[in-house]
Amino acid sequence: MTKGAFRALYQYPLMKKVFLSFLLILLPCLAACAPQGGKVSASLFAMDTYMQLDIYGSQTDLDAAEAEIQRLDRLFSSTAPESDISRINNAGTAVIDDDTLGLLSRSLELCEMTDGYLDITVYPIVERWGFISKNYSVPERGELESLLKNVDYKRVSLNSAEILPEGFKLDLGAVAKGYTADKLKGLLKSRGVGSAVLNLGGSVLAYGKKPNGEDWRVGITDPADTEKYMGVIACSDKTVVTSGDYERYFERDGKRYCHIIDPKTGYPADNGITSVTVVSDDGTKNDALSTALFVMGADKAREFIAADGSFDCVILTADKKAYITEGLTDSFTLSNTEYETAVIRG
Questions:
Q1: 321: which DSSP letter?
Q2: Partners of 24 in the beta sheet?
Q3: How far apart are CA 120 and CA 116, in angstroms?
Q4: pLDDT grade for 9, boundaries at 50, 70 and 90
Q5: pLDDT tens-digit series, residues 195-206
Q6: Domains, the chain, ranges and CATH?
Q7: Crossing angle for the helix pair 59-76 and 84-91, nearest 10 degrees?
């Protein structure tokens, strides 16, 4: 990121140069236009990512938002030994919090809705590729075929004593931050907060409008050059979620393997899509769909989007094509003219 470009972007603490799926863009006049007194901010690490919270409210509003993030992280983590998800993974069952039950139920609905391109039981394969331990390796095909026997969201039961069959493990990484955005939206509303922008590490809650009455502007990272952005979405009261192949990956023998696993093959998705951004007022659905559409591939994803019609989306491909839903044509601005744009119509 150039020094000049960084000044034009919403500042997120780039600890260890971690680049998120989004860069929030502040208009140059913000310092003059926005009230200077009411903004409280915090940076934190939760849900395996860096987060930035900016709330136009009180310190107690900010503290409440931080506490809610940490509470949900303790429930949904697949690696924290005492989390609800870890206890289910270890024993096949557990007494769990209402939020965990609610997110599991919604996640299974989304798995069904996407025909299994989202599957919350893919954790054993994610683990085997090394994306949890960071000890990366490429499994043999036979090993993956064996592990795939323990990947099937339809075998998760929330209405029996045993939630998971033996050998199965849950992973809510594809939905947890979106769900957290939804919970934070409710929390801010209940506290009377009128304006906030919460970057949860790839999931951005643009709550209300800017204090000056304008829309928030969310920049989409260019997967080909993560120090730049390829376009900007103007929005308010929306959650914007991106999944990209540049977020986490490793290379072996000249080939890149990204962290987004195709639950039907056991291999990292490799279909020409480089990122998917989903925009709507439903953060949980956005989070799930950004992963599922990425795995589907461009053709099937465009068919799904056109048939559903309940959300907006930007799909980027390796050959510099940007597919944009009709609902974003007035709010999306292309920054990188190398991209050829096409509109997805319902």
A1: E
A2: 218
A3: 9
A4: very low
A5: 999 999 989 999
A6: 7-26+193-344 (3.10.520.10)
A7: 0
